[in-house]
Amino acid sequence: MSDGQIILSKYHNAPVITGFIDGKMEFLSFDRKSQVHEVYLGKVDHIVKNLNAAFIRYGQDSIGYLSLQNISNVCVTNRNIEEKAALKSGDEVIVQIESEAIKSKKSKLTTSMSISGKYSVITLGRSGVGASLKLNDAKRKALIDITKPVFESTLERFQREKNLSFSAGLIVRTNAVDIPEESYISAITEDIAECLMRISLILTEGRKRTIYSLLYSPENSSLDKARAFLRNRGITDFEVIEDTGIHGINSKIDSLRQNKIWLKSGAFLIIEQLESFNAIDVNTGKAIKGKKDISMAVNLEAADEIMRQVRLRNLTGMILIDFINMKDEKNYEILIGHMTELCRKDPIHTNFVDVTGLGIMELTRNKNDKSLKEILQEVENAVDNR
Hints:
Helix content is 30%, strand content 30%. By secondary structure, it is of the alpha+beta class. The strands form four sheets. A six-stranded mixed sheet has the order 15-16-17-18-20-19, with helices on one face. Strands 4-5-6-8-7 form a five-stranded mixed β-barrel. It has a four-stranded mixed sheet with strand order 3-2-1-14, with helices on both faces. Strand 5 (53-59) and strand 6 (62-67) form a beta hairpin.
């Protein structure tokens, strides 16, 4: 069994949580206040028709971007609107922050707010029941079949009792597989009910509170995330310790600033974090070029390290990877299968898209927070301003 550790440390006096598996850092999170997933009562500042978007002020000095493509009418609190009716300047609307403001980019907002429980995630304005893509197909189907009637009956009861008409969809989380079979129905029902109660309270409070009120803030610490990360990799017996300096946490974080990463084989990666996409190049470097299937071996090794770097640096959006060219098409199929499996294990939804005609692999990774590069800039600016 793999050995796991969670180490509580500091980087320039900023609290940081790291997770190690067999002595290698696999998880990194700065324990910082984030607005992501917070829910506010905002006000439409103005509409930009050619962008099909509204700019919503959710604080005196905070304004965000809201796409008008899918607006949940139940989130408009100052008037009743029909499905697909347009928002107007001055409308009061409940919004959730999908991503924080970065440089000149405004916060991204949504009315399809998601509330997470221990075993489920419920999203307003969606429909249907799904399960985490990290689970195999057979397990996903089994969980969906069991959970769907439970969710539909619980949702119907809440709509009737709370006199709120809203649609919602559900995703069963990965750790639902840990629920004993004999207690699954009761555990998932309780979890669904808690999420729906939270959504009902947000919608009710949104009609009573003043503009710019914070209606919901998720409680999900970096330590909880680190524990979940290790458990999802089959490690249940791990220790949480204070950093004594012997693990070299600061130097390991500093190394994540570098764009050149050496692999054990002697090959290396070049990672460029650009404004509109992330580019990763795999090079044979000092790897033994005469060795049989060296390209395949290096590419598989590189794939593992690429996903580790993507996770630790929190690279999101479009990720383009230029692997070493291989002559055998079967090797490409193996590499794609391996990368697809690595994507499924990522805590953040990551999707294999395609391999272009030029042999560039395309991935997309959901935006969940600022990148490590942006967080480190904030940490250092805070130190400089003291």
